Amino acid sequence: MVGASLSKWTMSYFAAALLALIAAEGLMVAGFGFPNAPIRGPETLVLVHLVAIGWLSMLMLGALFQFVPVLVARPLHSNRLPLPSLVLILSGLAALLLGFLQMGGYLALPHSCFPAASALLGAGVSLALWNLGRTLWAARPLPISARFVTVGLASIAVTALLGILFALTLGGVVSHPALLAIASQGVPVHAIVGLGGWLTFTAMGVSYRLLAMFMLAPELDGASTRAAFHFGAVALALVIFGGVGLILLGGHLAFALAAAGTLGLVCVAIYWTDMVHLYRARKRRVIELNSRMAGFALISLGLAATLALAANILGVLPRLAGAVAFLTAFGWLSGLGLAMLYKIVAFITWLECYGPVLGKMPTPRVQDLVVERRALPWFMIYFVAVWSGTVALLIEQATVFRVSAGAMTIATVGLCIQFMHTRRLDHVLTLTSLPESGRPRLLMSAT
Amino acid sequence: MTVEANDELADHVRDALRLVIDPELGYNIVDLGLIYFVVIQDGGIANIVMTTTTKGCPATNYLKEGSRDAAWTVEGIEFVDVSLTYEPPWTPEMMTDDAKQHLGIMRGSGW
User: Fold this and answer.
1) CA A325 → CA A148, A396, A405, B79, distances in Å?
2) At B13, which CATH number?
3) Is residue B84 part of a domain?
4) How far apart are CA B69 and CA B85, in angstroms?
5) In Å, how far from its chain's centre is CA A128?
6) CB contact under 8 A, B109 and A6
7) pLDDT band, very low/low/confident/very high, at A432 (cuts 50, 70, 90)
8) Which of the four, A17, A98, A166, A234, has the lowest number of CB atoms within 10 Å?
């Protein structure tokens, strides 16, 4: 088979991810975690991991199970493994959040939940890595977009390993001095490799291919794209090997982070220029809503990088790190994720319902499954709310931040309702009759 | 059958293939330039060589099967063989002017 087929469990990953996003936004509205609590406090850790694992990682893994086969033009190694991965990661996340709540004194349980969280998350991530890794391995030599994803997958492995070490330390299982040193000082490495390596680098790789596909733009694999890849990969290697090495040698972690940060910013700048080129070189003059909204996510990435650079020059990065992380997680990663979901849900639903009858009867377009004018206001509210929330964090206005989080929650729920209409074929049924297969199941695809 | 009769049958097959759309671009695969050629051999055997807009497209198998099913509806077609190629790779230049206009692409615009 040349190409990819439908990923059975991707919709389940997306549903779990969106529920986690809404839950996290709800917590922010309630004032749970940063900025109402310390940035390293247990409340903030609940919030951060709900977003990073529950929302962004589930979204990314669900999308990768569908799109890694597209990137490498080969089928997924196993269509069965994503389900156990999903169950293990969600169970592990639940145990991790319970562990943080125990740590904060919100729960009194006889045993620490951290060892169980480590085992479950470790097993779930390993299964996903095995499945995606085998798919990529079989497709060597890899195109540039898939090489970004490969580095992203290596980054989730490192992030998970460090996370497991932290959890086992908190659970009282680890006592080796070297491991305790990494556990006590390695949080910045864990956060940067997770947010910058796993989530951002993977999103970059997927966006190179998907945005070119959606906008009919020539695929980029020239010198600039390779430069972005090499700068980013070296930056991540510096954070991981330099950072952990300096911790073990008793040096200053800040040296490795500063060097990696500089290379990372160069990577983001080149990627940003590539994306501008992609938008300018597109053949579709009128682009669809997902590509337009991805533009706002790219603007957010540029703003986050500029903010990080300015804060570092002014020597206030530690104080503004929360705002930079918020803009990166919600403006760039979540903004791009929601924009791509708008297209991917319609595309997967079309494949499932109308692919089998192609050539036998007239079929609607993917675009007929959505009504852009209904989704546009929710996207606009979402991005404005994220940007106002970032400003609120910068000027330390916790109440304004909670109001912004409220607007983000409303916008996310509005978008989820649009995704459900798409999945249930509500929009397209005003144009054509129900396909023979009937409405698809909400949470899984018939393959 | 004569060469003229086979050519006429090939035209009918092309017309039938217009029922198949590229789901993403929302236009029929013939005018998008995804059908590289259709040849009819004696005995009503249709050989179709086609491509997709991008290698690895998740709709690839549906497009292949849809093309086969659409061609089979043509009277006089007894067997259909659809093969996929990425040589040469598809570019927007291969679209008809109608398809380009539908997608808002300027005339003569390739990669």
Assistant:
1) 21, 15, 15, 60
2) 3.30.300.130
3) yes
4) 19
5) 15
6) no
7) confident
8) A234
- Which tokens is B51 given? 């491509």
Task: Quick: pLDDT tens for A193-244.
Answer: 999 999 999 999 999 999 998 898 988 888 999 999 999 999 999 999 999 9
CB–CB of A342/A293 below 8 Å?
Answer: yes
Confirm or reject contact between A108 and chain B (CB < 8 A). Answer: no
Tell me, what's the ipTM? 0.91
- Can you tell me whether residue A302 is helix, strand or coil? helix
User: Does residue B110 lie in a domain region?
Assistant: no
Give the residue numbers spanning the domain of B76. 3-102
Neighbouring CB atoms inside 10 A of A399's CB total: 10
Cβ distance B61 to A218 less than 8 Å, yes or no, reads: no
B contacts of A286 (beta carbons < 8 Å): 104
Instruction: Say how many domains are in chain B.
Output: 1
Flag whether B108 is in a domain.
no
Is B8 among the domain residues? Answer: yes
Residues 6+ apart with CB under 8 A from B45: B78, B79, B80, B81
Residue B58 touches partner A, C-beta closer than 8 Å: yes
pTM of structure = 0.94
Residues comprising chain B, all counted: 111
Task: Quickly list H helices, A200-252.
Answer: 202-215, 223-237, 243-249
